[in-house]
Write a structure and sequence with these properties.
- The complex is a heterodimer of chains A (182) and B (203).
- By secondary structure, chain A is of the alpha+beta class.
- Chain A has three helices and four strands, in the order ααββαββ.
- In chain B, helix 4 packs antiparallel against helix 5 (103-122).
- Chain B has a three-stranded antiparallel beta sheet.
- The longest helix of chain B has 20 residues, at 103-122.
- In chain B, a hairpin with a 5-residue loop joins strand 3 (144-149) and strand 4.
- Chain B is 33% helix and 20% strand.
- The chains are: A alpha+beta (182), B alpha+beta (203).
- The interface between A and B is small, with 10 and 11 residues.
Chain lengths: 182, 203
């Protein structure tokens, strides 16, 4: 293949012709003594990759791994901050104002309409825990629960006729207003 | 001569920002920070002292600035809560935050209660319910990078984010919400813009 290089600069043209001449003749091994011969390919072919394998080996998957890597969805453009803000500040992403908050008539704290008042519930829970401590003290161990009912009596209260066969638990405090006696 | 020089220097240095109270001698207020840590701009806003108002002026509403730094929460997630309570009265804001499921709601509630107490004690606010939230914002705190282990020996860097929360309480009932812009208002504005056009660089 003869390539005609016509460049406006005569020096460049002369250089290119000299190089081409060298390539055509081929370099004599005797030129470079004591050095390794230059690694010039005698024939270079420009074409598609002959071996269907990537450099890492992970770019082109074999059919066993499945067709998933090359055809994954990926963003094409960076989302601008304006677009991001439109999405993040859309009304459906903002927190809604709750309209079901009321005042508990017992303690005056806030409560949701369909939920028990948190303060009152905590109060009752604490009293129940203390009653259970008294029960534990009376029973003295697991598996000792009696087969009769239990009645809780506070200070200054006597068991009535209805509480004949029942187990009595004493609590050392005044009866709380919310714990109505039968 | 030394006193005059000091007075001139303080006059240049805007004395209303340095005088904490009228009883203290001005020169002793220069070293106000207790430690070498930088005091943020939001905290300094509480220190401005306005000159006394003239008899005819309307009463200036009290402004209370409060913030909390380095909250272990994301600033984007905290922003939603800040946006929720912007413009509400303090009671309504506390009610909304109490029943919100978010982690930042608890923190913001504490900040609001602290600010309310500060307002009553130090900033001469008469009724603690007569406050509304004028501004509520979040800021980015210090981030820290850590290694997060994935499967198959892979590692990624995760960032542990922190945020600041700033709130400004103003005395008085909350301002009424702006009515949404109607088409008629927009049309009126457009016509006004057309009428405002003039010729420039001419006689």
């Amino acid at each position: 293949v003869l390539v005609q290089v016509l460049s406006p600069l005569p020096r460049l043209r002369a250089l290119l012709q000299h190089c081409w001449g060298r390539l055509e003749r081929g370099l004599r091994p005797g030129v470079f003594r004591g050095q390794s011969p230059p690694c010039e390919p005698a024939l270079a072919v420009q074409g598609p990759a002959l071996v269907p394998q990537g450099i890492n080996g992970a770019e082109v998957p074999s059919l066993l791994e499945g067709v998933g890597v090359m055809w994954m969805a990926a963003p094409k453009q960076r989302r601008t901050i304006e677009v991001n803000r439109c999405r993040r500040r859309h009304p459906n992403k903002l927190i809604e104002v709750k309209r079901n908050i009321d005042v508990c008539p017992e303690c005056g704290n806030l409560k949701q309409k369909h939920v028990l008042c948190g303060y009152c519930y905590a109060k009752v829970k604490e009293e129940t825990r203390l009653i259970r401590v008294e029960i534990h003290k009376k029973e003295g161990g697991p598996f000792n629960a009696p087969t009769v009912e239990t009645v809780v009596l506070y200070e200054g209260e006597k068991p009535t006729e209805k509480d004949e066969g029942k187990r009595i638990i004493e609590r050392v405090r005044k009866r709380p207003s919310w714990f109505v006696q039968n | 001569a030394g006193a005059a020089w000091a007075r001139a220097l303080l006059g240049w240095a805007r004395p209303e920002r340095w005088l904490l109270s009228g009883n203290l001698f001005p020169l002793s207020c220069i070293h106000t920070s207790t430690s070498l840590q930088k005091i943020g701009k939001w905290e300094k806003k509480n220190r401005i002292v306005y000159p006394p108002q003239l008899p005819g002026e309307p009463r200036r509403p009290a402004e209370i600035y409060h913030c909390r730094r380095e909250i272990k929460y994301s600033k984007d997630k905290m922003w939603y809560l800040a946006k929720l309570i912007k413009g509400m009265s303090i009671d309504q804001a506390l009610a909304q935050l109490e029943f919100s499921d978010k982690k930042g709601a608890k923190v913001i509630k504490e900040v609001l209660l602290e600010a309310q107490e500060m307002a009553v004690r130090k900033h001469n606010v008469e009724f603690k319910s007569n406050l509304h939230i004028a501004e509520s914002q979040t800021g980015r705190g210090h981030y820290v990078k850590r290694i997060r282990c994935h499967g198959k020996g892979m590692y990624g860097t995760m960032k542990i984010s922190r945020c600041h929360y700033f709130v400004k309480l103003v005395e008085g009932p909350p301002p009424p919400p702006e009515p949404p812009k109607t088409g008629f208002d927009q049309a009126k504005e457009y016509v006004q813009q057309l009428r405002n056009r003039t010729l420039v660089h001419t006689l």
